[in-house]
Amino acid sequence: MEDLEEDSLLSFGLAIMIDSGRERKLKRKRRQSFKSLDINGVYEGKMFNLLETREMMLKKGNKRREAAPIGEDGQGLHLIHLLLMSATSLEEMKLDSAIENLRELYKNVSLNGDSVQRVAAYFADGLVARLLTHRSPFHEMIMKEPTPEDEFLSYIELYKVSPYYQFAHFTANQMILEAFEREENDNNNNNNNNNNNNNNALHVVDLDVGYGFQWPSLMQSLSDKATNGNRVSLRITGFGKTLEELEETKARLVGFAKTFRNLCFEFQGILRSKFGLKSIRKRNNETLVVNLVFYLNSLYHFKRISDLLRSTRMLNPSIIVLIEQEGGSSPRTFLSRFIEFLHYYAAMFDTLDDFLPLDSPQRLQIEKNHLGKEIKRLMDFDNDESNSPHFERMETWKGRMEGHGFEGLSLSSKTIIQAKLLLKINSPYCPIQYGGENGGFTAFEREEGNAISLAWQEKCLITASAWQCAGGI
């Protein structure tokens, strides 16, 4: 990425040496790269100066940069102030101020500094991207996606070192397993007239199957409770972005499932862009689960969320698992969303400092190819307030779920204990607290036992809850 950026800026430097006629044409072409620029090219020159400062930051970022403790010189507070000033100026269309503050930011941040320096660098990139049109080569340079391999490896590294995704997946799987066991017990008690008779068959509809990392632990749990003479059937219908990703996920899960002789496994991959929940067909005598883990927040628009929840209710699943990033009060403006995202990802970067050293290549990989990619994607969107990404509070999701005919399920003591034990096992390098005390990761119940949240210090990160259809369909 750094080499590409250096070449692009070098090309610009050479371009100013050529004849004036060609130079005028290049200026017109370059001017089209920027949003809301004046015809005299004033902002154009400032933007290139800003991009050159960014390039210098990236070169410095290749070397470990020791940062003074935030408490000693207020450097962290200064960077946060510059970020907020930049975002405010952008919202108010004060481009001079935005560019100047972003340039000052790039002079003081580093991809290998403390957590505030690092997170500020990625947020600065996201703000700069908002100044550029999507046709601009510089926009493409800043927003360049990691390769599928790099993205996959960064996800694995975060999965290994942090309880973030493990908390979500293991908690969801425990909820699913308990719903399956309840209906399995109906089967074992010979309640043949009960519509919940599942014939030892579990069907999970996963709206964002991703790499499929959630499901090996569920396979293991199902196999542990089954016998050779009483096999368990697990069918996963996974929605994904590309056929290639779905095929890789299928191969990974099918290969793992083959290690269990008492588990009958089936995987069906469905392109999310072409098919929806209306394509799902529930079989007789199976426990049907809808898995909404880190998915609803990605829909942005209330109508899309509402349509999905209505389709979900039509399936009449035994349980709906809802796990999402936790937001603050519903943000309505770009600036309020910016502040919410900044608080959230500052906590995420802070967690990595307790797991990985500053010079760790794994930390840089996680931040550059996973967290940093998310930050820039969240920043680079149009100004349509009704179609902009933001994280919701649990109370908001509760109102939406109940408004669409669902009722919350109380979490079992086993689910709560398992979640807290997972934190203890997977957090050997930082203090683990239970019940909301300040320090390290915390896990605590909410909504009178109907939800459980994972937090870092005082910042709530994700919340898990379980739902079922209220009344008849």
Overview of the structural elements:
- Helix 10 packs parallel to helix 11 (215-225).
- This protein is elongated.
- Strands 1, 2, 3, 4, 5, 6, 7, 8, 9 and 10 form a ten-stranded mixed sheet that branches.
- Mean pLDDT is 82; it is low at 1-34, 36-41, 64-72 and 428-438.
- With 473 residues, the chain is α/β, with parallel strands linked by helices.
- 52% of the residues lie in helices and 14% in strands.
- It starts with a helix and ends with a strand.
Q: What does the secondary structure layout of this molecule look like, with pairings?
A:
Layout: H1 2-15, H2 20-31, H3 42-61, H4 70-73, H5 75-91, H6 95-108, H7 115-131, H8 137-142, H9 148-161, H10 164-188, E1 201-206, H11 215-225, E2 232-240, H12 243-257, E3 263-271, E4 287-293, H13 302-315, E5 319-325, H14 334-353, H15 361-379, H16 394-403, E6 406-408, H17 413-426, E7 432-434, E8 441-446, E9 451-456, E10 459-469
Parallel strand pairs: 1-2, 1-4, 2-3, 4-5, 7-8
Antiparallel strand pairs: 5-10, 6-10, 8-9, 9-10
Helix pairs in contact: 1-3, 3-6, 5-6, 5-7, 5-14, 6-7, 7-14, 7-15, 9-15, 10-11, 10-17, 14-15
> How does the major sheet shape up?
10 strands, mixed
The mean pLDDT is 82
Shape: elongated
Ranges where pLDDT stays below 50 over 5 or more residues in a row are: 1-34, 36-41, 64-72, 428-438
Strands, count: 10
- Portion of residues within helices: 40-55%
Residue fraction in strands: 5-15%
